Protein backbone atom coordinates (compact mmCIF):
# COMPACT_ATOMS: atom_id res chain seq x y z
CA UNK A 1 0.00 0.00 0.00
CA UNK A 2 1.31 3.46 -0.92
CA UNK A 3 2.20 5.79 1.95
CA UNK A 4 0.23 8.94 2.62
CA UNK A 5 2.78 11.77 2.49
CA UNK A 6 2.87 15.12 4.24
CA UNK A 7 5.43 17.95 4.36
CA UNK A 8 5.86 19.04 7.95
CA UNK A 9 5.42 22.81 8.36
CA UNK A 10 8.49 25.03 8.73
CA UNK A 11 7.52 26.06 12.26
CA UNK A 12 5.70 24.25 15.05
CA UNK A 13 3.10 26.79 16.09
CA UNK A 14 -0.54 26.12 16.84
CA UNK A 15 -1.68 26.20 13.20
CA UNK A 16 1.09 23.78 12.19
CA UNK A 17 0.07 21.37 14.93
CA UNK A 18 -3.55 21.58 13.81
CA UNK A 19 -2.55 20.78 10.21
CA UNK A 20 -0.37 17.81 11.22
CA UNK A 21 -3.09 16.49 13.54
CA UNK A 22 -5.69 16.73 10.76
CA UNK A 23 -3.41 14.83 8.37
CA UNK A 24 -2.65 12.11 10.91
CA UNK A 25 -6.32 11.71 11.82
CA UNK A 26 -7.27 11.31 8.15
CA UNK A 27 -4.38 8.92 7.46
CA UNK A 28 -4.92 6.62 10.47
CA UNK A 29 -4.76 2.97 9.48
CA UNK A 30 -2.58 3.63 6.42
CA UNK A 31 1.21 3.94 6.00
CA UNK A 32 2.48 7.50 6.39
CA UNK A 33 5.62 9.36 5.41
CA UNK A 34 6.26 12.75 6.97
CA UNK A 35 8.98 14.86 5.35
CA UNK A 36 10.92 17.05 7.75
CA UNK A 37 13.16 18.64 5.11
CA UNK A 38 11.64 22.12 5.41
CA UNK A 39 11.36 22.29 9.21
CA UNK A 40 13.11 25.37 10.65
CA UNK A 41 11.93 25.03 14.26
CA UNK A 42 10.16 22.39 16.30
CA UNK A 43 8.70 22.31 19.75
CA UNK A 44 7.63 19.89 22.44
CA UNK A 45 3.95 19.88 21.41
CA UNK A 46 4.76 18.89 17.81
CA UNK A 47 7.38 16.35 18.90
CA UNK A 48 5.02 14.70 21.38
CA UNK A 49 2.28 14.52 18.75
CA UNK A 50 4.71 12.82 16.36
CA UNK A 51 5.77 10.42 19.12
CA UNK A 52 2.16 9.53 19.90
CA UNK A 53 1.49 9.00 16.19
CA UNK A 54 4.53 6.74 15.77
CA UNK A 55 3.33 4.61 18.68
CA UNK A 56 -0.25 4.51 17.36
CA UNK A 57 0.98 3.40 13.93
CA UNK A 58 3.12 0.72 15.59
CA UNK A 59 0.05 -0.60 17.42
CA UNK A 60 -1.82 -0.64 14.11
CA UNK A 61 1.15 -2.43 12.51
CA UNK A 62 1.42 0.27 9.86
CA UNK A 63 4.61 1.95 8.57
CA UNK A 64 5.36 5.42 9.96
CA UNK A 65 8.33 7.31 8.58
CA UNK A 66 9.76 10.68 9.56
CA UNK A 67 11.95 11.24 6.52
CA UNK A 68 14.57 13.80 5.54
CA UNK A 69 14.82 15.56 8.91
CA UNK A 70 16.30 19.03 8.60
CA UNK A 71 19.20 19.89 10.94
CA UNK A 72 16.89 22.07 13.11
CA UNK A 73 14.32 19.26 13.36
CA UNK A 74 16.99 16.74 14.29
CA UNK A 75 18.50 19.13 16.87
CA UNK A 76 15.11 19.86 18.43
CA UNK A 77 14.26 16.17 18.75
CA UNK A 78 17.69 15.48 20.24
CA UNK A 79 17.19 18.26 22.83
CA UNK A 80 13.88 16.66 23.81
CA UNK A 81 15.41 13.17 23.96
CA UNK A 82 13.11 11.89 21.19
CA UNK A 83 15.47 11.63 18.22
CA UNK A 84 16.29 7.94 18.72
CA UNK A 85 12.65 6.89 18.60
CA UNK A 86 11.31 9.34 16.04
CA UNK A 87 14.20 9.21 13.58
CA UNK A 88 14.62 5.44 13.64
CA UNK A 89 14.72 4.28 10.02
CA UNK A 90 12.81 1.06 10.52
CA UNK A 91 9.13 1.40 9.81
CA UNK A 92 6.71 0.37 12.51
CA UNK A 93 5.30 -2.85 11.13
Verbal overview:
The protein is α/β, with parallel strands linked by helices. The chain has a single domain, classed as STAS domain (Transcription Regulator spoIIAA). 46% of the residues lie in helices and 13% in strands. It contains 4 helices and 3 strands; from the N terminus they run E-H-E-H-E-H-H. The protein has helices at 14-27, 44-59, 71-79, 83-86, and strands at 4-7, 32-35, 64-67. It is globular and about 30 Å long. It comes from Oceanicola granulosus (strain ATCC BAA-861 / DSM 15982 / KCTC 12143 / HTCC2516). This is STAS domain-containing protein.
What's the short version?
With 93 residues, this protein is of the alpha/beta class. 46% of the residues lie in helices and 13% in strands. The chain has a single domain (4-86), classed as 2-Layer Sandwich (Transcription Regulator spoIIAA), CATH 3.30.750.
Explain the layout of strands and helices.
Elements: E1 4-7, H1 14-27, E2 32-35, H2 44-59, E3 64-67, H3 71-79, H4 83-86
Parallel strand pairs: 1-2, 2-3
Helix pairs in contact: 1-2
Amino acid sequence: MKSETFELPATAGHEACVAVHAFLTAARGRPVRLSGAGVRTTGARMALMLLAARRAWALDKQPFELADPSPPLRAGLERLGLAAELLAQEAAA
